[in-house]
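Replying to the earlier thread about multi-chain prediction with a worked example.

Input:
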Amino acid sequence: MCVCVLYFAKSVELTGVKEEIVAVPTPISSRDVWRLLLQRHQRLSVLQDQVVLAVRQQYVAVGDQVVTLADGDEVAVVPPLSGG
Amino acid sequence: MCVCVLYFAKSVELTGVKEEIVAVPTPISSRDVWRLLLQRHQRLSVLQDQVVLAVRQQYVAVGDQVVTLADGDEVAVVPPLSGG
Amino acid sequence: DAASTPTSLSRDWLSVQEVVDAVSSSSCGAISVFIGTTREDELDGRKVIGLEYEAYELMAQSEFTKLCADIRERWPTVTHICVHHRLGWVRPVLPWQISSPHRHDSQQAIQRCIDQLKANIPIWKKEVYDTQDSSWKENAE
Amino acid sequence: DAASTPTSLSRDWLSVQEVVDAVSSSSCGAISVFIGTTREDELDGRKVIGLEYEAYELMAQSEFTKLCADIRERWPTVTHICVHHRLGWVRPVLPWQISSPHRHDSQQAIQRCIDQLKANIPIWKKEVYDTQDSSWKENAE
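Result:
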């Protein structure tokens, strides 16, 4: 499937892109989604252990949880929040 | 002479106007300019002893100093400043 | 009054009146206000000269909506909720910069600027309160 | 570099880059910065929800010019001076209001809003420093 990956805040600086289309197998664990993004952008590793993902605008921790993706789904990289 | 009197900040609230044309004799002391404005707007008296004037954009203390005015000159009422 | 939940994320300021109108309600005895402000911070000798806020906007909006639902569930008497968060650049009121070959000169010059500004520049500041009162301030002599 | 004296009074924010560009100079070892900020104030139980600045604009501009001349006379090594003062409404980052019949509920609700916002709403803040560095902040757990 081809999903749309969105980057925010520090992850934009690390990858140099705000969004990109990425081909991913499905179903897939959220950990494997993260690994796949790390392969594309090695510098994202500074966010390891701090990052969470959002799939179709719902938070998903990086871990064993399996997600099913469809073409065009939104997957976001969410660095530590600092609103408020 | 008919001068243009400008009000700012608290003096706008006290007079209800931002500017007005006022007929004044010339030459005249700055104290008499202030008295003349007090006659038009009694509520300005709360600014007594705190206010300064500006004539053609130069500060003039309310006192004995005599100013010469021409038609259309700008006279401003300057309440205590609070910029910065 | 119907309960309302306006939320907004924007690059513009809400007018104070909009915020007040959004929660004013004749049935409400209590209005609580929280205002986040930018602070003047110094860190390792560096001054913060501005802040930038970025959001995942659609998701932030849906999270705000969930948060409001959660608040209403926990405190059913809550009538109005108004939430606003600035995005984009947020900057202090008055950035001054003076440069010179030696720090001492530029620091003294800045101090004089501040003193003279407060004494001579015709600018006035009005504070607006949550009670809808306001007052014009005066710089100390 | 020619010495420069940009001054401005405006209802808009200067971009941080504009301020930095205005005083960056290869011949200058020292840049001093003063930033006035809006503060969260409480007075007689009233909160300041905004500030309004008003100016006698033409005169303020000419007073700024006089002030800059005075600074250059006193400290001839001063290279660049950049002065900016906001006019009009200046408001805090995040006005929240929650109303309910009793203050206790709305206060508790506000506290939960703040906690949840920091934990869940996808918004990020970057601090920009006078050294031209910047860093993304993290809310405490």
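Residues 1-6, 12-17, 23-29, 35-41 of chain C have pLDDT under 50 and may be disordered.

Feel free to reuse this layout for your own posts.
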